[in-house]
């Protein structure tokens, strides 16, 4: 049996202290019930015993060191001890009990959490994205997530620790009949504490290297809205902003009394709605984590991207995001029922107000783009800048972000497979607008629950030798100002 190191014991101490803090927060100002009181007392006893073990190990090491250095002929050089708050080595970065806190300056704790989170990201292996790309994305989130950045850093440390990854792997490969019983008490505690940062439903948080709410993956649909929209990540339930139509200025005569030009402020909100996906897998695959990790990430990322490509376009807003077309309620009606003319393209472009037109972007299906190209075969109408050019090499990432190589009337054009490309009466076939007014809000954290057995109807409802992952996450989207968009509609 491998010896338990001080670092491993300290990690166990940190786990228990984190649970004590959570119990205290959950029962703030209230007396414990009997079950909670027993857990509280047990955890405190375990912390005392573990701390005593660490002290004993340290004392033994010091004793051995003193014995090995007892010689009159040895010249000893005293080296100065340099200590940087929160600076630790190896797996110690995941031991949150060593974080120094200051009631006078909360930033002390925040800085240490950020430092450790970035070090965790730097040492992580990402199965589907380049390390440089993934590290850059997560680094930006650590500094800019809407809500508590320290809580997001804490989430990265919880779900990125080697101990947590082992616990999550063991959970997936556990006994299908009694998965929880197959885990150690420490592994169960790690899973529950990581999940508590993103959900209270009982599922377990996915390690961040596989979490598509942190690392964007998937290419099953061309979904430009995350590229052109106003995207933020939060670790709260709802985003609240402030909007205004602006201040109306005016000239006045000398010494004339001023007027009240204060703007009317509104508070738009975007709630995050639950999305879900089910991933079946064989019991054998679940026991082979090395291959299943990347496969699961591919499937979840792809299903998420395909779903969002549709909902960000035409989502109803009821238990799902509001789509751009749903919120862009001002339409420009084309001249014909099943075709386009040059005047239609100019018309919808001019219908957009100047405030929004200067930063406007088009989103259209490829079928619509092809119809528009056919209107301008000689370049005389000047619809497409660099006439008929498709996916120019001068446009970076054009194959992955959906951008077409040419600009339509000088504005960037993106392919959106979730929008309509059907030429029949009443179809909404294109949108132009300032996508800074389309807010996409991700609640960071993908949660997974396991289904012990899948039963096949064709097999007489007997087990198929498969298990299932029920994954769920939360995302919302909304047009903040309908006037920032115009939708092209066929007559």
Give me a quick take on this structure.
The chain has 491 residues and is α+β, with helices and mostly antiparallel strands. It is 38% helix and 16% strand.
Largest sheet: 5 strands, mixed
How many β strands by DSSP? 16
CATH topology of the largest domain: phage-related protein like fold
Percent strand: 15-25%
Average pLDDT reading: 79
Molecular shape: globular
Indicate the CATH architecture of the largest domain: Alpha-Beta Complex
Tally the helices: what do you get?
Answer: 15
- Termini Cα gap: 77 Å
Estimate percent helicity.
Answer: 25-40%
Q: Structurally, how many domains make up the residues? A: 2
C-alpha Rg (nearest Å):
29 Å
User: Which consecutive residue ranges, at least 5 long each, have pLDDT under 50?
Assistant: 76-90, 387-400
**For the record, what CATH class of the largest domain applies?**
Alpha Beta
Provide the structure class.
alpha+beta
């Amino acid at each position: 049996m491998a010896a338990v190191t001080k670092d491993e014991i300290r990690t166990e101490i940190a786990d228990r202290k984190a649970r004590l803090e959570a119990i205290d927060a959950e029962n703030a100002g209230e007396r414990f019930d009997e079950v909670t009181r027993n857990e509280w007392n047990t955890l405190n006893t375990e912390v005392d015993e573990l701390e005593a073990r660490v002290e004993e190990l340290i004392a033994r090491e010091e004793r051995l060191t003193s014995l090995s250095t007892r010689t009159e002929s040895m010249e000893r050089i005293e080296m100065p001890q340099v200590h940087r708050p929160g600076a630790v080595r190896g797996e110690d970065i995941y031991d949150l009990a060593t974080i120094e806190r200051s009631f006078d300056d909360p930033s002390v704790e925040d800085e240490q959490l950020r430092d450790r989170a970035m070090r965790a990201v730097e040492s992580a292996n990402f199965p589907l994205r380049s390390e440089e790309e993934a590290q850059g994305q997560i680094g930006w989130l650590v500094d800019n997530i809407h809500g508590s950045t320290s809580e997001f850093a804490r989430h990265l440390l919880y779900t990125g620790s080697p101990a947590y990854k082992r616990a999550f792997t063991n959970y997936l490969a556990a006994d299908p009949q009694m998965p929880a019983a197959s885990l150690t008490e420490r592994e169960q505690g790690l899973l529950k504490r990581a999940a508590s940062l993103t959900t209270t439903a009982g599922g377990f948080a996915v390690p961040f290297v596989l979490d598509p709410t942190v690392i964007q993956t998937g290419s099953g649909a061309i979904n430009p809205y995350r590229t052109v929209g106003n995207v933020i990540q939060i670790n709260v339930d709802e985003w609240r902003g402030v909007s205004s139509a602006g201040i109306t200025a005016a000239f006045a005569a000398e010494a004339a009394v001023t007027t009240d030009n204060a703007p009317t402020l509104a508070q738009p909100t975007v709630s995050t709605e639950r999305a879900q996906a089910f991933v079946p897998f064989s019991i054998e695959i679940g026991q082979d984590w090395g291959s299943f990790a990347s496969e699961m990430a591919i499937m979840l990322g792809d299903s998420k991207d395909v779903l969002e490509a549709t909902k960000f376009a035409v989502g109803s807003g009821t238990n799902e995001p509001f789509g751009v077309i749903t919120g862009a309620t001002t339409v420009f009606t084309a001249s014909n029922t099943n075709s386009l003319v040059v005047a239609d393209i100019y018309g919808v472009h001019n219908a957009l107000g100047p405030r929004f037109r200067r930063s406007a972007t088009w989103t259209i299906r490829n079928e619509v783009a092809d119809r528009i190209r056919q209107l301008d075969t000689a370049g005389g109408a000047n619809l497409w800048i660099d006439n008929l050019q498709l996916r120019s090499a001068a446009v970076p990432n054009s194959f992955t972000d959906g951008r077409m190589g040419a600009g339509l009337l000088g504005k960037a054009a993106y392919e959106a497979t979730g929008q309509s490309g059907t030429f029949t009466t009443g179809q909404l076939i294109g949108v132009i607008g300032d996508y800074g007014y389309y807010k996409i809000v991700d609640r960071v954290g993908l949660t997974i629950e396991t289904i012990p057995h899948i039963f096949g109807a064709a097999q007489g409802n007997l087990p198929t030798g498969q298990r299932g992952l029920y994954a769920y996450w939360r995302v919302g989207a909304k047009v903040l100002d309908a006037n920032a968009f115009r939708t092209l509609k066929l007559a």
